[in-house]
Write a structure and sequence with these properties.
The chain has about 140 residues and is α+β, with helices and mostly antiparallel strands. It contains two helices and ten strands, in the order ββββαββββαββ. The longest helix is centred in the middle third of the chain and has 13 residues.
């Protein structure tokens, strides 16, 4: 069985708020735009495609902010900073996405997982030489 890879993007607006999407399945939770890689696709290409599929935005993929291994699903999640090439606001553009918007790190919408919060904090920590590789456990939900 091939290894699973997922990618997500951290996209900030002019005020430094992070773009989140609300899923139309599962817990209807808020998450970073992203998803699983397709065949013959790099982690960066996955992040770029998923952002476009979910919120209709063209983005430039920037620095890698973390790699998260989830042994429960045997998947590596890659997280990148990304900047929008679009002037228009993000809009849900997939049946998987109910809503999307920019949120302050202090006022993240709920329900949201600790995994999503951790990836945001790691990306925005801005410390040189911070550890990029993390092993994650089962999700804890913040309702």
């Amino acid at each position: 069985m091939p290894k699973l890879i997922g990618s997500a993007a951290i996209i900030l607006d002019a005020e430094g708020r992070v773009l989140l999407v609300k899923h139309s399945y599962g817990k209807h939770n808020w998450d970073l735009p992203g998803g699983k890689a397709e065949e013959n696709e790099s982690a960066q290409e996955t992040a770029k495609r998923e952002v476009f599929e979910e919120v209709g935005m063209e983005v430039l993929i920037g620095n890698l902010t973390g790699i998260y291994y989830d042994p429960d699903y045997d998947i590596h999640h890659f997280v990148f900073l990304a900047t929008s090439k679009d002037t228009r606001a993000p809009q849900p553009s997939s049946p998987e996405i109910m809503e999307c918007g920019f949120y302050s790190r202090d006022e993240l919408p709920r329900p949201i997982s600790d995994f999503t919060c951790r990836r945001i904090e790691d990306a925005l920590r801005n410390t040189p030489n911070h550890e990029l590789f993390h092993k994650v456990g089962p999700r804890q939900w913040i309702e």
